Amino acid sequence: MRFLFIVPLLCSLSLAAEHVTQYVNPFIGTSNFGATHPGAQYPHGMASVAPFNVAFRAGQENKFEKDQAWNSRVYIHENKFLTGFSHVNLSGVGCPDLGSILLMPTTGALEFDAKKYGSTYHNEQASPGYYRTTLDKYQVDVELSSTLRTGISRYTFPKGQSHILLNLGLGLTNETGGMLKVVSNSEVEGFKMLGTFCYHSEDVRPVYFVAKLSKAAKTAGAWKKMPKYQGVEAEWIGYDDNYKPYKDYRQEVAGDDIGAYFQFDTNEQETITVKLGISYVSIKNARQNLNAEQPGFAFEQTKDKAQQQWQKLLSRVQVKGQPTKKTIFYSALYHSLIHPNIIQDINGDYPLMGQPGIGNTQGKKRYSVYSLWDTNRNLHPLLSLLYPEIQSEMVNSMVAMAKESGWLPKWELLGMETQVMVGDPATVVIADSYLRGIQDFDVIAAYDYAKKAALTLDNNPLRPENKQYTQLGYVPVDDEGKWDGSVSTSLEYYIADWNLAQLAKALDRPQDHQRFLQRAKNYQKLFDSKTGMLRPKYANGQWFSPYDPQLGRNFEPAPGYIEGNAWNYRFYVPHDIPGLINSLGGDQNFIKQLTQTFTTDNFDMANEPDITYPFLFNYVKGEEWRSQQKINQLISTHYHNSPEGIPGNDDAGTLSAWLVFSMMGLYPVSPGDMNYALVTPSFDEISIQLNQAYYAGRTLTLKTQQPPQQAPYIDKMHLNKRELSDYFINHQQLVSGGELIFTLTSKVKK
Amino acid sequence: MRFLFIVPLLCSLSLAAEHVTQYVNPFIGTSNFGATHPGAQYPHGMASVAPFNVAFRAGQENKFEKDQAWNSRVYIHENKFLTGFSHVNLSGVGCPDLGSILLMPTTGALEFDAKKYGSTYHNEQASPGYYRTTLDKYQVDVELSSTLRTGISRYTFPKGQSHILLNLGLGLTNETGGMLKVVSNSEVEGFKMLGTFCYHSEDVRPVYFVAKLSKAAKTAGAWKKMPKYQGVEAEWIGYDDNYKPYKDYRQEVAGDDIGAYFQFDTNEQETITVKLGISYVSIKNARQNLNAEQPGFAFEQTKDKAQQQWQKLLSRVQVKGQPTKKTIFYSALYHSLIHPNIIQDINGDYPLMGQPGIGNTQGKKRYSVYSLWDTNRNLHPLLSLLYPEIQSEMVNSMVAMAKESGWLPKWELLGMETQVMVGDPATVVIADSYLRGIQDFDVIAAYDYAKKAALTLDNNPLRPENKQYTQLGYVPVDDEGKWDGSVSTSLEYYIADWNLAQLAKALDRPQDHQRFLQRAKNYQKLFDSKTGMLRPKYANGQWFSPYDPQLGRNFEPAPGYIEGNAWNYRFYVPHDIPGLINSLGGDQNFIKQLTQTFTTDNFDMANEPDITYPFLFNYVKGEEWRSQQKINQLISTHYHNSPEGIPGNDDAGTLSAWLVFSMMGLYPVSPGDMNYALVTPSFDEISIQLNQAYYAGRTLTLKTQQPPQQAPYIDKMHLNKRELSDYFINHQQLVSGGELIFTLTSKVKK
């Protein structure tokens, strides 16, 4: 009898703690420009270990070589020539940087030229916090795992002469230069310079590291690529345009292209483990991080711990449904939990924002890698809903950055403001988070910095051309640069102003509220009733002509627009869709134009400006089925359990966050607007464990009464048994917990 | 009456302490490949500050550009385009290295490219410990001085925008790479990699530095030369093959070509002083050195102290005679007191020899830059005679090197054995020093290391091919490399063996004495009675044929010989000239052949193998006048008070030491042989203050009874009133002090 009791108990436990990490496929997004990597990754880790297969052999083993085209990827699934495993990596970012500090095991003759020591590979496997492969050329098994600030690599060598190489010359970043010091036959320390983000940034930042090996090498040394000498010097010089070894050398080596090597006589199947800790503050801190997070060489424990941490976060949402859907869902949630990543050392040290020097978090966390033009739209709202304690830390970091640099971040990378993309997205994130209930930050300071950005007319790094924007109500097209579209910029400023207005209201500042609300309505000044587009306009009030709303579709420069064309931006006033509908002549024309966006191939699922559009049908009564249908269609068309399973650059998790929301059947219509648009969930049941430190509810459960694959349309919805009157639900309602029941139907309900 | 007493007293004091530094012309040797520099130099200083004018503008302002030919010079008098002031420099060395850490003041627009910011200059002045010039392009006055381990630069700027640049990318060394960190608006620290000595060495060594400015800059930052990008990347990258600024950046920068800058608004005639300390151990030590030796920015005091230190050393020899002769004499003595230089930090730290790690001298000195193939011949014997306490420190350093690395040095550079040139010269220096009376070192250890070099047959880094040498009695020509002449090498080994034999005798080891004496006589196996040459021989005993004794005259590879031809080496058995005379068939043929060496232009005053030859006439009774004549002739032909005043590479002071000895009328016939050959002194009186810690005498005075320019030949000589019976004098006699009187005659005395 007792036995019978135990079985269901175990089952129930097992259900509650289903190992959802099994559903994560880290290869999703590694093709089709997704720019994710399949390497060992800890949630929000500042270190990660990724296979690096984008260098050399262009058009041969490597279809996409990093220097042949714009490339922001350390790993591309189609590529086959691997030249190491990088320890600092960006995920889903559209500009090249990081992808540096490469370890590589080799065998046979010692070779320093990655062109020559690179190898094809097979038998890849990846799961959260773990990656493995076998190098064809060397028959070395490589296994990787990581913690927040360290990577660990376990190499299983064949019998013979074996090497472990550390290459600081090769990497994704276009910034050159590094320094290293072989401390002993089992340790190396140094730094690699990162930066030159998007090719043009002048800001740079060293990443410091310490690597320790589980076995002392027979010999160890360094190398450096010597330059190309000319004329007679080329005859005399020992290493001309070639790699020079520094055997048994134990002082610093610095240069553009340097490395360290460790040589071993290995036995058959001998494993050697390397652990590598990083810091953005100092070598000393990198060593402290390594000693704290990786005291031994416990590969399995590191792997288990990473997996547990992922399980802990991912299982905050439990879903029931088709395994493949679970895979794309949890993989997307996984990709939503990589950036922003922590940057403070174990002792709290971190590089100050926008100024020299080191700060200390005093026990708190400091985040970095804010791709805010992307992530303000849905990633931060998703974190706010599912992980408000993390979103709080991120907002706190943003406010700290403003206190250090004088300005909120826009595209912050390792404490550097890279000024990539347009708008004032930090204001949006701060207002949205506060309104959602994340209020444990210095909101007065945050508000003041946001207001500073909104009101500083000249020399405003966050809002270029804010003077004209303020005076004219829009950014004029007159002196527009190649990549700062006047319409796009204006639209982002309207959203920021609208969010600022909402925050002003919440903070009981009615004058500010009115003022910024008014500014946010100025989008109407760019509305061209003739074309129905938000159209570039000169300072003198004349429309930009000749005007082609299609221009910009393929990322080519288009006056007025950045990363998109007029169609991609035409509904981009998410804070005032009813107003836009009115401008467009009412519901029917709006639905017509919105539908046309999709039918004329003017919708781009791979970029941010228009990703809210499929939900906009919800704004017109009786047309909500179109959103349900469109979302279903977009998910099945663009998201797959395969390397090409993300439509384009994941954009630091933004396209993944879109999927997570969409599959849960809800989507934040606009940051700062607490309504989610509702569509058909992809699962039979979705259970969200709410954080009661922030939210009243304990659990929110979304259930479909019918299998969604058979009944894709919503018939009706009940929240805690009360039927919903429309296809929106308020954030406060949701986080109060309870059950949202979707009654589905196979037929369109008009 | 009292007044009359005072005058002669002052005169006498004034005579005793004549400011002999006024006779030093640091420009001597800066043309004609002398390879000395006119910069600010402290005696045996490890830092110095030299104008650097060998980069760019080849064939235009710069007649000899550093990359257009083999170049070992930081400064060439004919050149006119200056690109900075280097803080580590070699003097009179034939291979390029050091010449790095360049400071440069500029004005106007900030420019990082030395090709562009370089300037012509005028109004150069130089004296021991001081150099000045005015930069034409900027109208900036530059004044330089230095201590043992620091340099100090005083710049006087015009009114306007002014800059101080620190360039680690430019320099004489062919080793690339460095690191720097702008610590504040008035301080920068870092290191520059040195090495690749003679183009081919694989050994490298960082030199660390800290520089502090007397005034905080308005702005300060770093720069780096970005590489040449290819294809589409070249379009996107911000700095393609160009200098990228890192404004207000305060972390480390590393790379092949980097620098730091400090910007000022200067007033008319505003002076800014920069002090820069170096260390071969660490940045921390460089800072300690700087703080200890240069606590303020006291330019004048630094200059005075350097001059006083030079005065202290140079005045150990006081001469009376023509001012021009005094100038070439004291300039030569000055050039004899630069290398070897100290390398230990103020706290005693220094880089260990031939192994990683740091040693500490425990209050003693550690020397470096031993060009022993050159300096064993005369520089060390000169130091032994004039500065035995310094020679003792140098020998102690050599023994310490052997204890650290297992081998005595050959061509030691900054703790690296560069293996340049041939032979086993350290054995020679040690035996010679000991025999001269410098015995306060671990002679047993030194002897053991010398013996180890003599007897280790295989894998002998000091004596390659020692096995064949030992077995055959000579190094066979069979498998000779391009630059390791079998005859030259054998001859060096014979001298080393002979010196080792002398030391064995002194240490009462009769068996060793006999053994090494025998080996030293094996030169006869290379004596070819047919040609009268020391000729390359195969292992099977056959002479190398066809044989051209002229080959090698212009430094082209010549089988058997290095840096010379058969003629240059034909008398190169200084330890057994009587034996060689015998082999050559007696006195008359010897004199004939020796004379022919000079008449057929087969004597090279600019290189070491044959520089003893003009003294060899002394070995034949009645022919000594030829040495007197020849030395007079060589001095007046090759040594001048002008930039071309040294016949060729000074070779770390060797050609200068030749001049010092020759002008004093004595020359050590062979290291290990305590006899000096006597020739006509160049002065009326030479007074040497002997170091009584080593020598019995207090003063040695050499006087010519007649003015040597009018009576160039020796009639007779009296040492302490006893007439000498031949034209040699023993070291022990000399250092017992007293007077050596030369009675001169205008006629040849046969």
Automatic annotation (TrEMBL), chains A, B:
Q: Pfam families per the record?
A: Glyco_hydro_92, Glyco_hydro_92N
Instruction: Give residue ranges for domain Glycosyl hydrolase family.
Output: 285-745
The signal peptide, as residue positions, is 1-16
Looking up InterPro entries in the UniProt record yields: 6-hairpin_glycosidase_sf, GH-type_carb-bd, GH92_a_mannosidase_put, GH92_N, Glyco_hydro_92, PNGase
What keywords would UniProt list here?
Signal
Q: In this protein, which residues make up the domain named Glycosyl hydrolase family 92 N-terminal?
A: 23-279
Q: Which PANTHER family match?
A: PEPTIDE N-GLYCANASE PNGASE -RELATED, SECRETED PROTEIN
Name listed for the protein in its UniProt record: Alpha-1 2-mannosidase
